[in-house]
């Protein structure tokens, strides 16, 4: 029914927004930065200091 089209658009908007937020939350918490060793941290800072465009 054409009268129900706005409801479908709102439902799709919330559905895709929820998927987007969940995807970002899962990506944010999937990386464990505290598990890296001290040697890895110093190596990482060395690379970031010498990195050029």
What's a concise summary of this model?
With 53 residues, the chain is mainly alpha-helical. It is built from two helices and no strands.
Shape: elongated
Main sheet record: none
Strand content: under 5%
Instruction: Give Rg in angstroms.
Output: 22 Å
Which stretches of 5+ consecutive residues score pLDDT under 50? none
Secondary-structure element pattern, one letter each: HH
Topology record:
Blueprint: H1 5-29, H2 38-50
Describe the structure.
This protein is 72% helix and 0% strand. By secondary structure, the chain is mostly helical. The longest helix has 25 residues, at 5-29. It starts with a helix and ends with a helix. The protein has 2 helices and no strands. Its main location: mitochondrion. The chain crosses the membrane at residues 6-26. InterPro entries: ATP8_metazoa. Belongs to the ATPase protein 8 family. This is ATP synthase complex subunit 8.
Feature tags:
single chain, 53 residues, mainly alpha, ATP synthase complex subunit 8, transmembrane, hydrogen ion transport
């Amino acid at each position: 029914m054409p009268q129900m089209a706005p409801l479908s658009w709102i439902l799709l908007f919330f559905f895709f927004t929820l998927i987007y937020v969940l995807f970002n939350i899962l990506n944010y918490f999937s990386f464990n930065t505290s598990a890296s060793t001290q040697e890895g941290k110093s190596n990482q800072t060395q690379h970031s200091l010498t990195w050029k465009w």
